[in-house]
Amino acid sequence: MTIARTLLAPSELPELPIADPDLRRARELALGREHEADLADAVITHVERFAAAGDRPAVQDERRRVGYAELAAEARRVAALLERHGAGRGTVVAVGGERGVDVIAAFLAIELLGAVYVPADAGWPARRVADVLGQAGAVLLLATDPGEVTAALTEGAGEAGVPVVRAADAASAEPWRGAARLDGPDQPRYMLFTSGSTGRPKGAVVEHQGMLNHLHAKIIDLGMTASDVLAQTAPLGFDISVWQMLCPLLLGGRVTVVADRTGHDSAAFARHVDAEGVTIVELVPTMIRLLLDDLAEAADAPRMSGLRWMLATGEELPTELARRWLAEVPHASLMNAYGPTECSDDVTHHTVTPADLGLLRLPIGAPVINSRLYVLRREDGGWHAAEPGEAGELFVGGTCVGRGYAGDADRTRDAFFRDPFETTATGRLYRTGDEVKVLPQGVLQYLGRVDRQVKIAGVRMELGEIEAVLQRHPSVGAAAVVVHDFGAAR
C-alpha cells in the first residue's frame, strides 16, 4: 500500500468554526511572506548538477569524505538496491543507523524512486523501532551502518515483519537510471514520528514542496552560499536533521556530520567547528548553554572564529542565554527559530539583537517564506481573531503545512483543518497548540503551551503519553506525570 492511501484529503478535514467577521479580521492581521521558489526540483538533481560541473566536497563524517560525484553515484546504487527489494513510488522506506554519509545517500536514493523516507534512530529501543515501522507501513528497513545491524533494529524490524536490507550490498549494484520520480510538489517526501497523547507516537507526513520551501527559507534568511559548511548535529528522529543533511547540497556547499561523542563534548565540538571551517550550527538552548559554560572554563578554548550563525531551536531560548551568546561570541549571529514537525520544521525565524534583550521572552520572529500565520482565541465554542498584543493560539497555513498523520484520521482531524483563509498549495491549516501574541514590531512572541505537551532538551513530550505507557504495566493502577525544573542541566 502507498502512503497516500493512509492520508486525508483537504476535503475530508473539519471546518474551522470561525464567523465571517473574524475570518476577515484574521485574514487582515495574518503574518505572511510570499516568495517565488522552485519547489518542484529534486535535491538529487542539484547534487548531480554540481557533480557534472566539477567535483567538490559534499559530505563528511568520521569515517569518510565524499564529493558530489561520489555521493550521486552512491545514491543511484542504493536506489537500485531498494527497488530490487520492493521500494517504489509512494512506498515507505525506513533508514536505520548512525548519522553519516550513508544516511544522506539513502535519503537521495529514496527521493530518486519517489518513495518516502522515515528514520529509525540507532539509539531507539526495539519496541520503538517496531512501532514506527509498523505505523509507517515500511516495505523495508535499510541498515546503513557498515558493520553488523544493531540488535534493536533487527529485533524491531522482525517484530514489525519488515525485511532488513544492508546498504553495503549496494556497492556492487548497477546504478539506477532515469530522472527523479517527482509526481508533483504535493508528493509525500518524509515521515517523522512525534509525541502523542495515547501512548503511541504520530507519523507526521511532510510534502516535497514543504521540505523544499523550508530549505529555501534557510538559504534566504541565513544568506547561505556555496562557501558555507553546515554542522549536522541532530538525531535522525528530529525534524531539523532533514535540513541539516540537505540544505548545503542545493548550493554546492558542504555538510559535516558531527558524531555524538564529539557533539556531547563541548570542547571537542568547538575544535571540530574550527578544524572543519563550520559556518552554521543549530543546537537546542540547553546545548548552547553547556557549550558557553564549558568554553568559559577552558583556558585555551577554541574560538569558533569561522562561525557565522548559531540557530536555537526545539525549546524556548531564554533572554539571559541570548545575552551571553551576543557578549561571548559576538562574531556569530544568533537566530531564534520556531516550528512544528507537522509544518516542515521552522515556520518563523528571528535574528536576536541587543534591543531584544530587554524583553522577558524573546520573539520567535516573522514567518518564513510562503507561510501564513494566524493568531486566534477560543471563546463560546468558536474561534475569533486576536488583536495585536492579545494572546491567542497559533495556526499555520501555506506551503509548509504537511499532510497529517499517516493512518490516523482521528488525530489528523484534531490538528488539521480545511484552510478557510486562503487558497493555498496545501489547502490545510494546522493548529499548533502554542499560545503566542504579535508584538508591536510585527513579530511573534511565544507564551507557552495550551495543552500538557512539554519540551525537555528539545524533545517534544506529551505527559499523557508517558502516563499511558506507565499504565501498561500490570502493577500500575494509575499514574500522573509532572515536570520539575531544577535549573540548567550540567
TrEMBL record:
Protein name: Amino acid adenylation domain-containing protein
Stored InterPro entries: AA_adenyl_dom, AMP-bd_C_sf, AMP-binding_CS, AMP-dep_synth/lig_dom, ANL_N_sf
CDD domains for this protein: A_NRPS
Record organism: Actinomadura litoris
Chain ranges of the AMP-dependent synthetase/ligase domain: 51-405
Cited Pfam families: AMP-binding
GO biological process: amino acid activation for nonribosomal peptide biosynthetic process; secondary metabolite biosynthetic process
PANTHER family in UniProt: FATTY ACID SYNTHASE, NONRIBOSOMAL PEPTIDE SYNTHETASE
Any GO molecular function: phosphopantetheine binding
PROSITE patterns reported for this sequence: AMP_BINDING
NCBIfam families assigned to the protein according to its UniProt record, in alphabetical order: AA-adenyl-dom
Recorded GO CC terms: cytosol
Matches recorded under SUPFAM superfamilies: Acetyl-CoA synthetase-like
